Structure formats: C-alpha cells, structure tokens
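Expect chain and fold; thus:
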Amino acid sequence: MTDHSRKELLVFAMATDERGLFVFANESEATSYCEGLDVEAGGWFFWNSGGVPLEPEFLMPNTRGRFSVGNGRYRLIRAAPDHHADLAGMLDGMALLEPNPFFASVAEVKAHLAGRGGRTSAPEDAGESWNADGARVPSGHGQFPGNGHGQGHGEHDANGFQRRRRELMAPRWLEICVGLALMPFTLMCLAGSVMMIAWPAKKAPNLSIALGLVFVLVCLWILAVSVRLVLNRPRQGGLLGPFALRASAVLFFALPIGGLFTGHYRAFGLVAIGQAICYLLVAGKLWSLAGQRARRTR
C-alpha cells in the first residue's frame, strides 16, 4: 500500500479534555483507542482523512452497572451539519499534535488537508464562526483559543455539557501523582494480606485466611486503578480485562469450596452459608462480565 493510499484511510481525533490531535491509521484503530464511555460523554471529536466531521454510531451500547461499567462498540459515520467544525477550522485551537507516523507538525496536517481540498484556516463565512467546542456561533461571539476574542455564547447544550465535564476532570498531573502515591501503599497492604493467608492467626485461622483473600482482591483492584491513572487508563473494554475477570471469578468460586475442608461451615453455620452464596453470585457475575468484555474487544 502506497503512502498516499494509507493516508486515504486516516482518521483524526481530538481529545476534548486536553485538546490534543491524534492521528489513527484507520477507523478500527481509532474506535479501539477511544473508549466508548468517553466518546458518548463528548470526550472525542472525529474527522476523516479529508477533515470532514464524523460522529459515533453505537452498534452495542455502553453498560453502567452498580459496581462496574463497560464500553460499547461503535462505528464512525458522516456527522450531522451542526455536530462540530471541520478539522481545518479547528486546527488553530489544537493544543498539541500527538506523535504519529504520518505528520510531524500541524503545518503538515494543513498541507495534507489543502491537498484534499479542505480549508487550511478557520472559516470566515459571513455571520458565523466556530467556537473552541466545535459549535457554530454568530460571528464575533466565539473564536478559537489564542485569537483574543474569548469564548462563544451560542454553544449547544451538548457542548456546554462537554465543557463542564472537562472542568470537573482532574488534571493529568494530579492523576499521575495519585497513581504513584497509591502504588507503594497498596503494595504494602498486599504484602500484609498475603501474610494473613500464609500465617493465619491461631485463634481464628479460617477467618484470617478468608479476610486475607478479600484484602488481596481489594489490593489488586486498587493497584490496577493506580496503574490506570499513571498510564492514562486502558483503551479497550474497561478497568480489568477478560483474563483478570475470569481469574477473579475462579478465586471467588474457590472460597466456598475451600470452606468445606477448613471447618468454616461448622464454625460459623448460617453466616458461612450466606457468605458462600454471596461468593458464588459474585463469581457468576464476574465470569459473565468477562465474556461480554471478550466479545467487545474482538
């Protein structure tokens, strides 16, 4: 495939929180990288290789449970006329160009769009312009950041939601600091939990082992969260992948079986039976969630 034909398949995307421009080799790469939950919340704008706006069409909806969330599956289609500006009209408002194998600078992106017949500067149509959120507003009321005209006042409700969402999001440096601070503390807690299992208390060894297993799971979850914060979160599925979910399900399934050989049911009676039922329900839910996530990431 020639360089020209490869660029025909490009998809541009802007992360609305940091206003960074990403360049993906094709639609599949873009939809894999940009999580469905973030896309649905207005966290991304998309354009095709010619800078024409695209919008997501969800083939499988995002899921939001009481204890977990999952990303749906979507494709990119031609956007409605007022969805957001074309790429050429928003380039001046981009904060940075993310490293990619196609373009070394914004100037090269502009040259590419010019070669495709796109505009290389903000639109100057009489009576309209585009604000920083990509919405069309009356002339003089909204320009790109850095041109001295401030923000627009004609945003759609959806764009207002996107702006409020960005204001509520923690800055990237804070996410990294929190993730790095959590890691050593969580590792120490994890070591203590493993010791509870390896050397249980003499007065209540079964309870010590059971609590140790629960604490191990909690520590592993917090450790995964800290890694996600440092690495700017995984790009597919959710916080845990199918393998991690199935491994957790097996562990929860093993807990009530282990109680049969440790005398846990004789010692705690109905309480132990209730715990076993809860463990089995959690195991079933985790296994089911793993199957759903595996299908979404294929």
